[in-house]
């Protein structure tokens, strides 16, 4: 984490990616997010931000699910990502979600690849 903390401050774009497990983030992703509590605390508890609050940063969340799509499949992960991005002063701009990867890997899905290109162009 000591290597990651300064990278959040230096970044213009943050792309957070996690597979979806039981409709939420992986444990490794959530652990990394939880370790960023220090950014929130430095801003709101101690009044001395550990990150440049004036720098504009954009954030994208990328997630895949092995199971076929169901309505709301990725919804439980969005509030966690939203709060994570807020803690590191990132404007949450978009998502890229891909379901059913157990049967059809994302790199074979033109709709997903085209959506990724569109998101990249918008950044």
Question: How would you describe this structure to a colleague?
Answer:
By secondary structure, the chain is α/β, with parallel strands linked by helices. The chain has 5 helices and 3 strands. It is globular, with a radius of gyration of 15 Å. The model has no long low-confidence stretch (mean pLDDT about 95).
Looking at the structure, what is the overall shape? globular
Strand order of the main beta sheet, please? 1-2-3
Q: Portion of residues in helices?
A: 25-40%
Distance between the termini: 26 Å
Average pLDDT, all residues:
95
According to DSSP, the number of beta strands is 3
Which structural category fits the helices and strands?
alpha/beta
The number of helices is: 5
State the major sheet.
Answer: 3 strands, parallel
Low-confidence stretches: none
How large a portion of the residues is in β-strands, by DSSP E?
15-25%
H-E order: HEHHEHEH
Query: What gyration radius follows from the Cα positions, in whole Å?
Result: 15 Å
């Amino acid at each position: 984490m000591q290597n990651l903390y300064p990278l959040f401050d230096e970044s213009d774009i943050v792309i957070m990616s996690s597979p979806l497990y039981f409709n939420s983030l992986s444990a490794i992703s959530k652990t990394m997010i939880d370790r960023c509590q220090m950014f929130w605390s430095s801003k709101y508890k101690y009044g001395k931000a550990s990150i440049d609050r004036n720098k504009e940063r954009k954030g994208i969340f990328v997630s895949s699910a092995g199971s076929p799509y169901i309505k709301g499949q990725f919804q439980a992960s969005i509030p966690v990502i939203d709060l994570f991005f807020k803690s590191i002063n990132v404007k949450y701009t978009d998502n890229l979600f891909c379901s059913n990867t157990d049967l059809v890997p994302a790199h074979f899905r033109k709709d997903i690849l085209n959506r990724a290109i569109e998101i990249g162009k918008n950044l």
